[in-house]
Amino acid sequence: MTAPILTIEKLDLAIGGAPILRSVDMVVEAGKVHALVGESGSGKSMTALTTMQLLPHGANTTGTLRFGDEDLLTASEERMCALRGDDIGMVFQEPMTALNPVKTIGEQVAEGIRWHTGTNRPDAEQRAAIMLKRVGLPTTRFPLDRYPHELSGGQRQRVVIAIACALRPKLLIADEPTTALDVVLQAQILDLLRELVAEDGMGLVLISHDLGVVAGMADDITILRHGVVQEAGHAVDVLRRQTHPYTRQLAEASAHVPQWDGRAKPPEITALLDVQNLVKDYPGPRTGLFSRGAPFRAVDDVSFSVPPGRSVGLVGQSGCGKSTLARIVLALDKPTSGIVSFDGMETSRLDDHDPTMALARREMQVVFQDPYGSFNPRQTVERLVAEPLHLEEAPLSKSERRERIAFALDEVGMPADAMRRYPHEFSGGQRQRLAIARAIITRPKLVVCDEPVSALDVSIRAQILDLFAKLNDELGLAYLFITHDLTVARAITHEVMVMDHGRIVERGATADVLDNPQTEAAQRLVAAAPDLNRAIERRAKDTSGISSPFEARKHPSS
Question: Model-level pTM?
Answer without folding.
Answer: 0.81
